Amino acid sequence: MDNEKMIELVGLTKTFSQTTAVNNMNLDVYRGEFLTFLGPSGCGKTTTLRMIAGFEEPTAGQIILGGKNCEALPPEKRDVNTVFQNYALFPHLSIRDNIAFGLKLKKLPKPTIRDKVEQAICLVKLEEHVAKKPSQLSGGQKQRVAIARAIVNEPKVLLLDEPLGALDLKLRKEMQLELKHLQKTLGITFIYVTHDQEEALTMSDRIVVMNRGNIEQVGVSEEIYESPRTRFVADFIGETNLIAGVVTIKGAGFTQVESCRKRYSIEGDYPYRTGEALTICVRPENIHFTRNIADVGNYNCMEGIYEESVYVGNMVKHILRNPAGETITINRLTRKGEHFEPGQAVGFCWSPKRAVLVDAQAGPT
Ligand SMILES: Nc1ncnc2c1ncn2[C@@H]1O[C@H](COP(=O)(O)OP(=O)(O)OP(=O)(O)O)[C@@H](O)[C@H]1O
Ligand SMILES: [Mg+2]
Questions:
Q1: From the alpha carbon of 37, which atom of ligand 1 is closest?
Q2: Which helix (H) or strand (E) holds 53?
Q3: What digits encode the pLDDT tens for the residues 150-177?
């Protein structure tokens, strides 16, 4: 990834009659970057991709590809290829001919086509299957053909819309790593779409979290997970505890928040003002139990009523309810010394460094 801008989206907007699918999107995508659009169903991911590819005309705004406004360019004239979720392979053509199709259309010399196709086949490890038809391949193999068919054209940008959606979990995880390695080997800019947050965290250089046509946050995986800037991002990415509070002191490098009639200190500089309502987010792995219930009088310790525990293999999940009625989940690696009865009062704490503040519960948007 370098500093050269490959794609610039400027005020990009798409409206379908009543629905604003994409709302004033501003984003730069850099050369060689693996960028992921992540968000729930209907948030505008596919529409954004289709506008970049040229299949959909923006209602407003611009798409700048390699420094040039591409408003008037039809899809085939853009230096962009798309891999769709349903692969869209030609059933009557062999795998080799499927991959060669685009190059034949471009009327490249036969030896050039042969070399490029062989290279692409090697990259996606389909050497044994070149003579087969798509119907004779597994889902993962078809996926590889779709990717080979796109990369053989050597596009500057590859757009991938939920390309692993049809695969089972194990294959999906294998393909995630393969795709990421392939992208780094080729140095092509990838714009990837998924609604699976784990997939986005695994694969991306940067993640664009979308919600209802708007960008909520752009950042590398760690930023998105560790420092969500909105309640939506905190809630959508991974598991988190959301505790409502009000700012009592805004100090230098920390904010004090009142919740359930106790004070909590959170490290960091936040734009919230004294008296403002907000949400404390603490990941379940960042909370521990306190042996002494009297600790609850201290900063960042709260009391809850124990409900249940669930053993999920690599950890134990404890579920409690705090005095405000909010559900608190605490993930612990073992049960050692931590056995509680339903209905029991239990104290739990977190470090001021391990919590973040986001906006208060938004009303219906
Ligand atoms: N051709 C269309 N006509 C009318 N509305 C559309 C059209 N295409 C998309 N929309 C609407 O635009 C919004 C965004 O759709 P889009 O397909 O971009 O979502 P998405 O993020 O890709 O969702 P998913 O994860 O389900 O694929 C949705 O509300 C959808 O109903
Ligand atoms: Mg979609």
A1: 21
A2: helix 45-53
A3: 889 888 999 999 988 877 888 888 889 9
Residues 239-282: tens digit of each pLDDT: 999 999 999 999 899 999 999 889 999 999 898 999 999 999 99
Architecture per CATH, domain 239-359, reads as Beta Barrel (2.40)
CB-ligand 1 contact for 46 (6 Å cutoff): yes
Tell me which residue has its CA closest to atom 2 in ligand 1: 16
What is the structure's pLDDT at 116? 92
- Report the CATH fold assignment for 5-79+155-231: Rossmann fold (3.40.50)
Residue identifier of the C-alpha nearest atom 4 of ligand 1: 16
Do the strands 254-259 and 345-350 form a parallel or antiparallel pair, or are they unpaired? unpaired
Asked if residue 43 has its Cβ within 6 Å of ligand 1, the reply is: yes
**Is pLDDT at 120 greater than 50 in this prediction?**
yes
As a whole-number percent, the residues of the chain with pLDDT over 90 amount to: 73
- What is residue 287's three-state secondary structure? strand
Please state which of the ranges 77-86, 195-204, 235-244 shows the lowest mean pLDDT. 77-86
Nearest CA to ligand 1 atom 17: 46
Taking the domains of the chain in order of start, what are their residue ranges? 5-79+155-231, 93-148, 239-359
Q: Pick the ligand that lies closest to the CA of residue 43.
A: 1
Smallest CA separation from ligand 1 atom 1, residue: 16
Give the separation between CA 67 and CA 84, rounded to whole angstroms.
Answer: 26
Order of strands across the sheet with 241-250? 262-267, 254-259, 241-250, 277-282, 355-359
pTM (2 d.p.) = 0.89
pLDDT range class, residue 365, cuts 50, 70, 90: very low
CA distance 137 to 200: 27
Report the alpha-carbon distance of residue 63 to residue 233 in Å, rounded: 26
Residue 84 CA, ligand 2 centroid: distance in Å: 10
Residues with CB under 5 A from ligand 2 (ion): 46
Q: Report CA(42)–ligand 1 centroid distance (Å).
A: 5
Cβ of 47 below 6 Å from ligand 1: yes
